[in-house]
Every structure is written in structure tokens, then in C-alpha cells.
Design goal:
Number of domains: 2
Largest sheet: 15 strands, mixed
Helix content: 10-25%
Oligomer: single chain
Number of helices: 5
Structural class: alpha+beta
Distance between the termini: 10 Å
Length: 297
């Protein structure tokens, strides 16, 4: 199977279940909202080594927010409900409450349950906090030096999917990178999904486990390292490929992951020099979701 002359490999992406929270960060300006959203989603590329996976889901114009101000939806994910509760409290408390003019609202639909993040944060107000109602939501107003920080009492969580992925194999590193950036731009138009790695692009694709060091639970994917293709016997890189990047996607459900993968792959296949689209799978050792690339089209 091909798209625009690019081979779509007959393989699948192996994804896994994760707990997901989706919240809306608003501020007086789009710039200030973006700053807060960025701070709250930092150091969250992969749960291999980070305390969460997180990213910006998309811009929300003032006409669509509860307080009539510009904002950004963000997603924060962790496999543990307890750890996700901890991450939400810290990231909202330290990344958003500390940012100028911000407010936080629940942005998750059909949540499985809600965590009392705003209720816990209200105690920062030292007894001066107030309970409000905005857009039929229970909101706490916490006085801070610059005014009041607003946060919804409860933020929803649900079972989501993490690790949807595909590899972009191209003639050169730069062609692969341009295609990866095009893919990320396309994925950003799919609500309920994030690409948690830096700029949405994974430079250091990994595999489950390690061949030579038993103290590591993940290590470099040597079969997809371009500088090793003459050295690794079981390399999965064809002769005309000299640049590879991976795109990893987390989402509120498998359906949105599939949409994001489809849009991202189609965008990547418009870039000259892209030769093949593949995906990462590990025999079921990573997760229960198998997303076949060719079934996306």
C-alpha cells in the first residue's frame, strides 16, 4: 500500500492504556495562556523517565471559554490515578497558579471520575478564598498578589490511550524532520490528542527492555538507528533511508488516536524524500492496543 508514492508498511503501532485529564487554561491574552499551558506541560515527554506525559491539545478562542478569554486545552496523563492526582495538583499549582492572570477549567467530556484539584488548591488562599459559580461550574477564587486565580473545584479523569505512534523514514535527516513537523501540525487539528515529545517529534525512539544492560527497562531502538544500519544484523532500515523520526500520540480514546495517526501520516506523505511509514511494536509487552497502519486508510 502506498500514499503519494510512500510505502505504508504492513505493521502495527502498539499502544497502552493510561489515565488522562484534560483541562482548559485561560488568561488575559493568548500569549499569557500559552505561557501557562507550556509551563504546566513541561518535563512530560514519556513515563519511561518523566512523572507524566503531557502536552498542549489546542487553542480555544474567547467565544468558546467559560470566562470569555483566550485559552489552551492541555492534557496530563499517567498510568496511576494517585500519581495523576499528584501531577495535576503540582502542575496546576506551580505552573498555572503562578502565571499571570490565569484560570483553570475542566475540559474533559465523559469523565470516569473527578479529582478535587481546585478544592485542594483553595487552601493556598489561607481562608480568604471564595466559592463562585461560572458557567454552571463550581469555581474557587484564590487571592494572589496580582488579583485572583480561578480554578474549577474538580477536574475530570478517564481511561485513555498512550503510545500511538508511527515512524517516518526518509532519504535524509532534514527531509524526515520536515515531514515530522508537517505530521505534528496535522495532528494538532485533532482534538483530544497530544504529541508529548519536544515539538511533537521523537528523535530517540526506544524499545522495551535492553539487550546488554539488565538495569534498564527501555533503551535505544537499534533496529531503527540510521548510524547502525550497517552494524545491526536485523536492521529495519532500507538502503535509501538516512533519516528517521517517530511521532508519539496520547489521546482521550483509541478513536482519536487513530484519527491523529491517519492525519499525521497523510501529512508526512506529502513531503518529498519520504520513503516509508512504519510503526513501533514489541510483541504485546508494551500494551494491549494494536493499531494497524493500513487499516487507518
Amino acid at each position: 500500500m502506498q500514499i503519494n508514492g510512500v510505502d505504508i508498511k504492513d505493521t502495527y503501532a502498539e499502544a497502552f492504556g493510561i489515565k488522562v485529564s484534560r483541562l482548559l487554561v485561560t488568561a488575559a491574552t493568548k500569549k499569557l495562556a500559552k505561557i501557562a499551558a507550556t509551563e504546566a506541560t513541561g518535563y512530560a515527554t514519556s513515563v519511561i523517565g518523566c512523572p507524566a506525559e503531557a502536552g498542549i491539545d489546542g487553542y480555544v478562542p474567547p467565544t468558546e471559554t467559560p470566562d470569555g478569554r483566550p485559552g489552551y486545552n492541555i492534557m496530563i496523563c499517567n498510568s496511576s490515578k494517585k500519581q495523576l492526582d499528584h501531577e495535576l495538583l503540582e502542575r496546576v499549582g506551580m505552573g498555572i497558579l503562578t502565571a499571570a492572570t490565569t484560570a483553570v477549567f475542566n475540559a474533559l467530556e465523559d469523565e470516569d471520575e473527578k479529582l478535587k484539584i481546585g478544592f485542594k488548591l483553595k487552601f493556598f488562599g489561607d481562608g480568604y478564598e471564595k466559592e463562585l459559580e461560572i458557567d454552571n461550574r463550581t469555581i474557587y477564587s484564590i487571592p494572589i498578589m496580582s488579583g485572583d486565580f480561578l480554578v474549577e473545584s474538580e477536574l475530570g479523569i478517564k481511561d485513555g490511550v498512550a503510545g500511538g505512534n508511527f515512524f517516518i523514514l526518509a532519504n535524509s535527516q532534514m527531509e524526515a524532520l520536515i515531514a515530522a513537523e508537517a505530521a505534528v501540525d496535522a495532528i494538532h487539528a485533532v482534538p483530544g490528542t497530544i504529541t508529548p515529545f519536544p515539538g511533537g517529534v521523537v528523535a530517540s525512539g526506544s524499545k522495551v527492555g535492553c539487550n546488554n544492560y539488565n538495569f534498564l527497562n527501555a533503551s535505544t531502538n537499534e533496529k531503527m538507528c540510521v548510524t547502525l544500519k550497517e552494524e545491526v544484523v536485523e536492521t529495519e532500515i532500507r538502503d535509501d533511508v538516512h533519516g528517521i523520526y517517530e511521532i508519539v500520540i496520547d489521546g482521550v480514546n483509541e478513536e482519536q488516536i487513530r484519527k491523529a495517526m491517519s492525519e499525521g501520516i497523510k501529512a508526512a506523505c506529502t513531503i518529498s524524500g519520504v520513503r516509508e511509514i512504519s510503526a513501533g511494536n514489541y510483541g504485546g509487552s508494551l500494551g494491549a492496543y494494536k493499531i494497524n497502519l493500513r487499516d487507518l486508510f
